[in-house]
Structure formats: C-alpha cells, structure tokens
Records
---
Amino acid sequence: MIHELGKQNSIFNEFLRQVRDEKIQKDRMRIRRNMERLGEIFAYEISKTLDYKTTDVTTPLGTAVMRIPERLPVLATIMRAGLPFHQGFLNYFDDADSAFVSAYRKHLKNEDEFEVKVEYLSSPSLKGKEVIIADPMLATGTSMALVYNALVEKGKPEHVHIAALLASKEGIEFLRKNLPQNITIWVGAIDDELTAQSYIVPGLGDAGDLCYGSK
C-alpha cells in the first residue's frame, strides 16, 4: 500500500515546497526545521493506522476515558540525511525507541556507478514490533532494502512503514519486488526520473548536504 500525502490539500505541501526551493535551501536551519515539521505530519498520519486501547485519565473534575496507542512504533532512520526527518517523528512518538543505520554510496572508478554500504546499526529488538523507517529520499530503493534487511536481523517486525519525503517510481517498484508484503510506503510526492547518478528529478538535491554541508 502506498500513501502519497502531497495529493491532499494541506500545509504539508507548503513545507515540501520550501524544502525543494533552491533559494530557501541556502538556509540550512530552515531546511532542517521543515524536514522536522514534515516528519511530524508523517507521524500524525501513520498514527491513525496503529492499534489503540482505552484508558482512564483522572482530571481535576473527574475521570475521562481516552483512546491511546496500544504501543509505540520503533523509529528507525538512515544517517545522516534522515536525522532531522527522524526528529519530527520523535516529537510525536516521544517515548518511542529509536534505531539508527549508517549507509552510504561507495563510488567506483566510474563516478556514475556506486554500491551502497551499510556499516553501523544500533537498534532494539524488533520482534513483533511496528517499525517506521524514515529517510528523506527514496531513489533507487537499494539503500532502503539493504537497511531493511539489516534491521530485521534484530527480529522480525509485525509491520513496517517506510516514510520518504520524495520517491522515484523506480524506487517504489524496486521495493515492491524486493521487500515482504507487510510493508506500507508513505511518501510526500513521487517524481518520474532519476539522473545517471541516481538522484531524483526534480527532487530536491542531496538532502544530507542541504542539512549539514557538502561531504
């Protein structure tokens, strides 16, 4: 199942527009903050799909019966570009456990060719858990698939949500073919093309560089 949040009329699209805008991109703090705000909206939308339970809350005037999430998801992200996006999820699921994965493109002799390397993983047990993997860009889908495979070594999740600000059609198709069925994909927008270097077009550029400076 794929949810494209940008198809709805909401303030979400204004934040996404600002993240894409090359003039606004000169302000790193604003880019990081907008990615965080976008993460908050993703968190709110995904929260509607979780399991809920009732609980009694004592107020100064009595007792209220409230519905709250039965359990919080584990929040996973790919360093470094995913960090501000992840913070948005953490702002809403504030008591959730987090997982972090280091993945990067190792370029070969031909700069247009690269392989994705996963080098570091910090994660709680994921057995039977609901998991959200947040990364701003879903280009070829290779990085996300490798990160998913690394994470499930920590236990088989009950369900996984993949959240990306922007995705390519190719990346989504790759995940459909290479990941299990218990996956829900959430994107801000789906763009049509990839460059020879596998950057999304029109996309927004290199999300990590925009947030933290060039490598």
---
Amino acid sequence: MNFSWMAWTPPTALFFVGIVIALVGMGMVARWIPKNEPRVGILGIATQRGDRLFLSLLGSAFVHLAFIALAPASLPLWFASLASLVYAAAVFLFV
C-alpha cells in the first residue's frame, strides 16, 4: 500500500495515533463499565459516551482549524492540541 499521497509528518501521525487511542480507550471503558445511560447536559439533549466523543473530536478539528487561521505563525500547533484536550474534558463533563 502506497501512502505517498499523504503528508505523513510527525504531527499528522500523532493526530491519528491519538484518535486510535481514544477509540481503543472508549472500547475498554465500554467493556469495563457497560452501563451507558443517556445523560442530559448543558445542551439539553441526551448524550452517551460515544456522542460526547464524537462532539469532542469534531470540536477539536474546529479548534485546530481556527488556530491555524487566526494564530500567529510563531505559535506551535501543540497549543491548539492542549486547547482541544481542555475542550474534550469540558464536553465529557458538561454535555
């Protein structure tokens, strides 16, 4: 299989490794704690763990896009990654 069409830089690889770790982690949580009752948070809709994971991944993509568009070029991209982790924690706690 030839992946030369994609720019496999270390940040790109870390991004995909992070998504795989999140999915494997959610699978292990589902295995160890099978009770997954819907919860109504600040959005007013019932969400489960998978819904909150999806919202955190989607929001993290937007955080990174906004960082690339609005932040000065001198700031490293890992600031956006830290902001995304804070955002994901907030989603899992409050949504």
---
Amino acid sequence: MKFDIGKKVLVIGRAGLDIYPEPPGTKIADVTTFSAHLGGSAANTCVALSLLNIQSELVTCISDDAIGQFVINKLNHFKIGTKYCEKIDKTFQTQVAVVETILENNQSILYRNNSCDLQLNIDLINKISFEEYSAVMISGVALSSEPSRSAVFHATEKASALKLPLIIDLDYRPYNWESNETKSEIYKKIMHHMDIIIGNDLEFNIADNSNNGFYLAKNLIQHKPSIIVYKMGEKGSVVITKENEQPFGIFNVKALKPTGAGDAFNGGFVSSLIKGVQLADAVRNGSACAAIVVTRVGCSSAMPTEKELKDFIDIQNKDIHLS
C-alpha cells in the first residue's frame, strides 16, 4: 500500500453546520448565544488533514441555500477542495447539529430529515478523475441509504481499478438504515474492499450483528485489509495487521466534551501514514489529535496544526502506554 504525498486525498461523506451553545458548559435549554462551525465527519476529517499539511477534496451534496454556502465558505477557508461538492435543490437539507460543550450527559442533537448528503449519486462519482488522488477515504454514514450507498460502492470500484488505497471510518449512526440485517450486510461487503478500516467496538459489533466484533476484525485481516484500528474508547485501541495485534492506550487530558475525537484521530493517523510515518507513531499522532480536540470547543475548529500536535506530544514527554 503506497501513497503519493504529492496528490490530494479524496474524502467521501457529509458536511454540515454545527452550532455550539456559548460559553462552554452551557446547556442547550439555557442558551442565549451560539457559535457556528463547519461540521460533518467527512468535512471534519478534511480539516484535520489540511491542518496537518495533507490536501484533500470533499465529495458530498449540499443544499443550494445559505447553509450550503456557509459550508462552502468554511471549506474554502480551510483550503479543502470543493469541486465535487454538488449543490442540489434545497428540498434536501444540509445537516445541522446542535452540540453542547459538556462532558457529562452531553446533548448532540442532529437535524438530518431529508438529508442532502445522502443524495450523492453515481453521476457525480463519474465526474471524478480518480487518478489525481493518492487515496480514497469513506465515511460510513454515506452507506446508510440510497442513492448514496450505490455511489460509494461505485467509487470503491473505480479506486480499486487504479489500486488506490481505500480507507473507511465505519462512522455508524443509527438513522437512515432500514434494518439491522442491512447494516451488517453492507458494512461487511464494503470492508472486504478496504485497505484500512477504522472503527470502534460498537461499530464492529454492528457490522457482525453480534457482540463479537473483534472476531470479525481478526477474520477480515486475513483477507483484504492491511490495517484495522479497533478502538475501545477509554480502553485505547488495538491495531491489527496481518503480522500481529498491538494494543495502545490513550493520552489523558481534561476534556471539555466527547465529540470530534474520531475525526481528529482520522486526520492524525491517515496524514502520518501518507507521510511515511511508522504505524505505531501514526497511532500516537492520531490519539494525540483526538486528545487535543476534546479539550476545545467545536470539532473542525478544534483540530490541531502540525506544530500544535508536536508541542502536545513534547509536553506529554511520553508515548501512549501500551495496554
């Protein structure tokens, strides 16, 4: 699996508007002032990559209205490619999330009725010149319904034909899936095409439709994937390759809120692999990015720069502990 560092990463998934009660610690029910941020897991991952000096291009659909334009403006601010961000009829709506900067009993309320990002279609995928990219990264939410599901599989076929590295963040969200059986079937099908799989224990359990997702991960690694990152929250993670399984811990920080850590990990981990960093150090960098983000307001706005990442690791003066 090789990356061309001179090319962008193509990221497929959702972008939206995140609204945070201000000041931090304010409950939604008590709020008088909000701050607005770029949101959506794929967009957040693009921001994380950009701030770590890896260029990306986002593939999504957004509403042809002021919220859609807000998303475009923010993507441009973070120097993320937008030529495959297709504006569609505002009958379909850009995701809006209202998220508290609170650790305990955190409320994250998502408005995804008739969501436009799930209108991603094969015609848009056919416009993409895949040979211009170093890798394709997929957010699992894009698999949750049609026509987006078929579009993602079509993109996977095109990338595979060019032997581009394929990465998925399983990114399970309960809405839009029609049944548990479909979730399991679709996740298993896509994972057999991936080179790198990133997910938590719940997501692997859902993919296996059981309580033994770790067994599924160990079985998958014998086939297509080269790297599986099996995350377990506060218990750290296990990185599975064809050669071995290596446990990792986490950085201990005083968190403000639980959101954004996964997208930050994606950025730190994938950017490190693209730069040729050793696997253990890539996990360390991803974990450090996750630790930084949960100490700040927002998700995209909280992503660290390369200097902030280095300074954080230097201050910690230690690597993440092996479990």
